[in-house]
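User: Structure with adenosine-5'-triphosphate, tokens only please.
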Amino acid sequence: MQDLPNLFLIGPMGAGKSTIGRLLAAELCRDFYDSDHEIQARCGADIPWIFDVEGEAGFREREAQAIDDLTRRSGIVMATGGGAVIREVNRRALRERGTVIYLYTTVEQQLRRTAKDRNRPLLQAEDPGRVLRDLFAARDPLYRATADLIVRTDRRGPKAVASEIVRRVTKLVDPLQSCKA
Ligand SMILES: Nc1ncnc2c1ncn2[C@@H]1O[C@H](COP(=O)(O)OP(=O)(O)OP(=O)(O)O)[C@@H](O)[C@H]1O
Ligand SMILES: O=C(O)C1=C[C@@H](O)[C@@H](O)[C@H](O)C1
Ligand SMILES: [Mg+2]
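Assistant:
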């Protein structure tokens, strides 16, 4: 598994990027990074605070810097924030510096998985379902255009999804591996 490139997880809020990314890194004995966590650690404040004080534009600047820095590392697994694909510069860094995996789930699952968490400012709206649907319409094409692989997370738990990613990524990197003894 040492030959595997960086693995970058993209997808919408609640797709499971942070949860599955951590499991995936453990399975591959890789270092794990999460761009949302990195932004908060560097700033010393949480995401709602950054949105409050600096607006979404300030958050996106911090996100682009974190993604540029983290994608320069080698041999890592990184979960991104749901909006990482908005900026072309982020999409390019992800595509050029690793294998990109789009974790796909349904809006219904996203709603269920994010319902109790107050840490996502974009969902503190009167109708979070509508927000998620609108974001999906705008971003799904960007996730697809950036990804090397698409993996569904709505039908299986995080461990099963992490194992599926290991299997599919290994094949992607070495298509002959399934023929080897
Ligand atoms: N495959 C899955 N099956 C069931 N529950 C899941 C699955 N993946 C993640 N979850 C649950 O969904 C919730 C949100 O997951 P997580 O925080 O990993 O999403 P995320 O993609 O990182 O979201 P964000 O973009 O907001 O950072 C968590 O409670 C997690 O346990
Ligand atoms: O989808 C989004 O735009 C976001 C997703 C989260 O991961 C965080 O990056 C932040 O709450 C914004
Ligand atoms: Mg996350």
